[in-house]
Amino acid sequence: MEKLPFFLILLSLAIAAANEADEGSSNRRHATEKTTRLHFYYHETTSGKNPTAVHVAQTASTKKSPTLFGLVNVMDDPLTEGPELTSKLVGRGQGLYASSGLEELSILMVWTVVFKSGKYSGSSVTVLGRNPISHPRREMSIVGGTGVFRLARGVLTFRTYFSNHTVAVIEVDAVVIHF
């Protein structure tokens, strides 16, 4: 009999938690799904006074690899409305990438687009996937988001606008589905 009150308390808590979780999912069922198209540029600098991407790890064989296999970088790149670095800043592209191809130059990218201005300020979109950087057009998955982009999914496309050994400007188009 001593266990019966304890069991009833646990059962009540479980029912309350299930009801709360169910209310949250029913609110989403009634939310309107939205589609937002985004267009901006990201600027990556790998050397000089203020690099926006830096090497943080590599394997013993990375320097011998034609694809730099095993190299890991972190980044905090400015995102702008236009291809010029002086155009309006819309946010930051923060994350990491690792050279993951043995035969082809490709990176595995974990990237969060953090909006710093405009109607999306304070919101973010998270991207994950393979980026074969030598291809003219690359697609990656949008796997989540915050703020305006809560529960986001979608696709993001990269096109290299300009690139040399120390600077890259990448044109970004995204279709974000969110609530």
Instruction: Work out the number of β strands.
Output: 9
Q: Tell me about the biggest sheet?
A: 8 strands, antiparallel, barrel
Q: Tell me, what's the shape?
A: globular
**Lateral arrangement of strands in the main beta sheet:** 1-3-4-5-6-7-8-9
Estimated share of beta-strand residues: over 45%
Low-confidence stretches: 21-26
Query: How many alpha or pi helices?
Result: 1
Helix and strand string, N-terminal first?
HEEEEEEEEE
Query: In angstroms, what separates the terminal alpha carbons?
Result: 48 Å
The rounded Rg comes to 22 Å
Share of helix, binned: 10-25%
Overall pLDDT score: 90
What structural class do the secondary elements suggest?
Answer: alpha+beta
What does this structure look like?
- The termini are far apart.
- Helices cover 16% and strands 49% of the residues.
- An 8-stranded antiparallel β-barrel has the order 1-3-4-5-6-7-8-9.
- With 179 residues, it is of the alpha+beta class.
- It contains 1 helix and 9 strands, in the order αβββββββββ.
Defining key terms:
179 residues; alpha+beta; eight-stranded antiparallel beta barrel; 1 helix
Give the helices and strands, then pairings.
Blueprint: H1 3-30, E1 34-45, E2 53-57, E3 72-80, E4 89-99, E5 107-115, E6 124-131, E7 137-146, E8 153-163, E9 167-178
Antiparallel strand pairs: 1-3, 1-9, 2-3, 3-4, 4-5, 5-6, 6-7, 7-8, 8-9
Write a brief caption for the model:
With 179 residues, this protein is α+β, with helices and mostly antiparallel strands.
